[in-house]
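User: Structure please.
Assistant: Input sequence and predicted structure:
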Amino acid sequence: MASSWRRTFGNMRSFVSNSMGGLRGGSNLASWVVAGTLAYFLWIKPSQDLKREQQEKAALAAAESDPYRYVETRKPIPDPQVTGLIYGNKNKDKPTKPED
């Protein structure tokens, strides 16, 4: 009975090994890395990019078609500190004349 499961396990292991092309060790790992990289750049990444572009287009179309969207109609109020109204010199652009 013990040899039965060992034989079954050995058959399964040889089947898996043969299905991977019969490669073992580092060459097997390297071939899987190359195959995975190619699959990613040829199938997975383009489909993700296409899906992302479709979502962006759908979001833009939904935003443009919304008649109740918010539109800014007023100019923003300038910051008084930046414009020199607070703690600033009103005549900062004009050069000062030295007094004698």
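The chain has a mean pLDDT of 78.
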